Amino acid sequence: MNGPNQPPTGGAQQVSIGPSHGSNLPVDQQGDLHRIRTLLDTCYDDGLFPETSFSHGEIEVVDGIGYLNLSDEVDAATVAWLKDRTVIVMFDCRASTFSVAQREQFIRIYEDAWFQDINFNPSHKRGRTHGEAPNVMSYVARTSRIAQWTIAKGQDFIPSRQGPVRVTFRPWMTQQELDQLRDAESAARYRIIALRIPLGAMFSLRNAVERLMGPIIHMHPPDRREDEPRLGNVKIDCDPVVERNFKEWIVLRRPTGQAMQVQFANQDTAFCQKCLWWFHDEFDPECPRFHELMPLGRRSRTRGGRRGQNPTSHHPDQHLALQPFTIYNNPEFVPLPFPSQGVGASSSGGQTHGQLTSLRNVEGHSHGAGSYTVQPTATDATMRDPRLFLRTPVKQRRINGDGEGVITQEEEEGELDFFAVSAAGASTHQASSQGPPQQPPFNLALLPTPVLQASSSRNAVGSIRHQLVPLCFMLSQQGTKFMARRTDKGFLAIPTVAVSSSPTMKEAVKYVAATFIVECFAFRLVPGVRIGRKTVTASNGGSWHFSIGVLDVKIALDTAALLATQDVVWLPSSWLASTATEELQETFLTDDVNAKIVAEFCTTLATDKQPHSAGFRNLLLAPWGNSGEGETARKPRPKQPADDSQRIQHETAPTSTDVQP
């Protein structure tokens, strides 16, 4: 199996490129190792990017993605330098509302204590800061003595108007070490929250939890944060065994017969930032404040720790998203056959492509040629209960003042979150019933158009055929899952759309994906995940060029039930964690290309963006239209009281005996 950030070793064309700018000479271990250290000082201390007379590693291009495989010498020297000079500064969760500028100001207050001390800072220059996460920053000290003293201090408390803020200092770690530490900390505890504890149940609560669920590691004091209810809630860190024995309700009975009920949530329970309560989120129509705007300044995040401003509001007509709607004919629903295979005969009112039936045979009442109104036909309890099947409800198109569906500009990445166009087979009756035609926000002439490769007269030998793979992901109680369909032969097929050329822009991917989805459900590109590119040699000559777009979808209950009747299934994302997964051998994109290439692409993504990771789950949980933390970083820095700054400088100033040179 390839590493998460390593280029694939098989099934893809690899191209080595010679040096064009810079040297390709290897590192001279006798003379260049000291020079690397000097160049690292220049880079991190002075902010310069010096030219080097040696190569940093081998380069190659795989499926249009360039890779620089760092040499052992360069990588070891860089890691050693950062470990010697860099400190990870972690703020307590109460400081999560601080902007990047405010956190940097706190670090500068510490730095002022030794800034003018020639023994600790001979250069009289300030260190550099780098934002790592909403509550984590890196500080590159000017000398190793400053870094050692800061790490030795361990933690400190900074006074603020909101109360003392705990700051923890840790040595710098690589991403792999951070992931291992995070996994170890997560595996070492399981957090539950006791909600609305009756006053008479406080004393016996710990004993009840230990005996009914499992051992308790730490019970936090009932201190309240700004973004949590004012009721008697208590966070409890438990042994991981509690996850298996978790109980939502515990009842304490008094000898008189009175019962005191305590409800529990856990670290995986949904939380709403509007009404500040558990068991649903701000996108759930059952929220009592669903039609209200998000309170100003309140961050929208999951209980897992994703933070950021959320300007998204809900339209009063959002309940329309749960009503039955029209699905158009979509001949691109399934993997298309090779040109030499042709198109199979229609069966049961649906057109078949290589023994796979498209959405033309959806059961429902016909409204004109090629349109069908969806009727809820759920046969499974999981389909009937949206809380069991979907973590977040469907997101609908915005409706303007005239009641017409219009394209709206979303804030995420400056792109449209959702728009749809009818497939080529949609009738004129559909267009007239849907109001004026929508105008895409860009020139469609520049986009690759979906094409059908069903004619046997087209010779594909020696040609390149382009396919877009709309890899649709959805959250469920069982974890992250992606869309596929079970064919009549029992195989699984991941949907693909044939295009005239590979889409290179995100707008193009959205446009092509919209022709596949055809307003069946809302979708967006998963933020921060690039478009995949894979080239595979076809069995009958020529080659397939696949572009993989990773989509986040929200599906209404009735649509999910209808798709289930059409053999649409949702596969666990863990299948994509390795190219050696046995199930992928029976999952296909085309008749002779299986889903192994999709797993190869997923393993080349960053660790926190691979579909089976917790980081990818957080990406799906991010609010649609989240503007992130960048806006807050541009706000002016609030002035810290002078007496607080002087007190911190006086208390934190290192002495010559703290760290030995």
Question: Any overview of this molecule?
Answer:
- The protein is α+β, with helices and mostly antiparallel strands.
- It has three domains: about 80-185 and about 630-650, 2-Layer Sandwich (Alpha-Beta Plaits); about 185-320, no CATH class; about 330-620, no CATH class.
- The chain has 16 helices and 30 strands.
- Strands 21, 22, 23, 24, 25, 26, 27, 28, 29 and 30 form a ten-stranded mixed β-sheet that branches.
Percentage of residues assigned to helices:
10-25%
Please identify the structural class as seen in this structure: alpha+beta
- Gross morphology is flat
Arithmetic mean of pLDDT: 66
Topology:
Elements: E1 14-16, H1 32-46, E2 57-62, E3 65-70, H2 72-85, E4 86-91, H3 100-111, E5 128-133, E6 136-140, H4 144-153, E7 155-158, E8 165-171, H5 175-188, E9 190-195, H6 202-212, E10 216-219, E11 234-238, H7 242-245, E12 249-253, E13 259-266, E14 271-272, E15 277-278, E16 326-328, E17 352-353, E18 356-357, E19 364-366, E20 371-374, H8 381-384, H9 386-389, H10 428-433, E21 464-476, E22 479-486, E23 492-493, E24 497-499, H11 506-517, E25 522-525, E26 532-537, E27 543-554, H12 557-565, E28 568-572, E29 587-590, E30 593-594, H13 596-603, H14 614-621, H15 630-633, H16 642-652
Parallel strand pairs: 21-27, 23-29
Antiparallel strand pairs: 1-2, 2-3, 4-6, 4-8, 5-6, 7-8, 9-11, 9-13, 10-11, 12-13, 14-15, 16-20, 17-18, 19-20, 21-22, 21-24, 22-23, 22-28, 25-27, 26-27, 29-30
Helix pairs in contact: 1-2
Region (Disordered): 1-28, 299-320, 625-661
Biased composition (Basic and acidic residues): 640-650
Biased composition (Polar residues): 11-27, 652-661
